[in-house]
Design a protein that fits this description.
alpha+beta, Helix Hairpins, Heat Shock Protein 90
Length: 243
């Protein structure tokens, strides 16, 4: 029997509540950063365009003005990504099969897969799942994870997506690539905005995917290493409630 001085063990409900509070805090921080960046970036881009208009034939000035504009465009992309994470559209849940969403996402990313000669083996469960999903937002989550998996996968390698349905109807899907392992320090903060192991990337994609699964009362976990190496992303969605 626990004494008053001993910490109470976290239940699934309290864990989900704490998790949602952490996500909400991250969303507020992301939105604040985006608002702080938006106006200065717009001002820099406008001033640069004016200088470019007034510039004569100096190639050095023109080259550096072009560089400034490219960097402001990259910052604008970051601002848009932060706002997408911080001010999401509410999910509109309807009964659906998450593996059908996977099929659509794989079709949409066929060009990217072919560009790296990555083959995908998508194994669906025999008894198909019925979950309460927002197909459009879930497609975004799957797509963000898939793009990361393709980026990490060696050229000409295989990528596996294996889905199962538990006895209670919970749907689970595991995405595995054979790329290099993610460092422990990045892995511990993988779902935080602006955390990435890839130079030049905003580090928002996995944060958005994680937020979408949270809004679905589901889970998303990333694990590296193991006996087979590589990295595995694991999704979980509860079954749709029967009225």
């Amino acid at each position: 029997m626990a004494t008053e001085s001993e910490p109470r063990p976290e239940t699934p409900i309290t864990t989900r509540t704490l998790h949602r509070e952490r996500v909400k805090l991250s969303q507020n921080v992301a939105t604040s950063i985006a608002h702080e960046l938006r106006n200065p970036v717009f001002a820099i881009a406008s001033a640069t365009q004016l200088l470019r208009y007034r510039n004569g034939d100096d190639p050095i000035i023109e080259r550096n003005l072009g560089r400034i504009l490219r960097e402001t465009e990259r910052l604008n992309t970051l601002v848009a990504a932060l706002l997408e994470y911080g001010r999401p559209e509410p999910v509109r849940l309807e009964p659906g099969d998450p593996d059908e969403v996977w099929t659509d996402v794989l079709t949409a990313h066929r060009g990217l897969l072919e560009s790296k000669a990555v083959l995908v083996n998508h194994t669906m469960p025999r008894d198909r799942a019925t979950c309460a999903i927002d197909a459009e937002q879930l497609s975004t989550a799957f797509g963000n994870v898939l793009v990361n998996a393709i980026d990490a996968a060696p050229e000409g390698s295989d990528l596996t997506i294996h889905s199962v349905v538990d006895r209670d109807g919970t749907w689970r899907s595991h995405v595995h690539n054979d790329g290099p392992p993610i460092s422990d320090d990045v892995l511990a903060r993988i779902f935080e905005p602006l955390v990435t192991a890839k130079p030049g990337h905003a580090g928002i994609g996995l944060a958005v995917a994680h937020r979408i699964l949270t809004d679905h009362a589901g889970t998303l976990a990333i694990a590296g290493g193991g006996t087979d190496g590589g990295t595995t992303a694991s999704f979980g969605l509860p079954p749709a409630r029967v009225p």
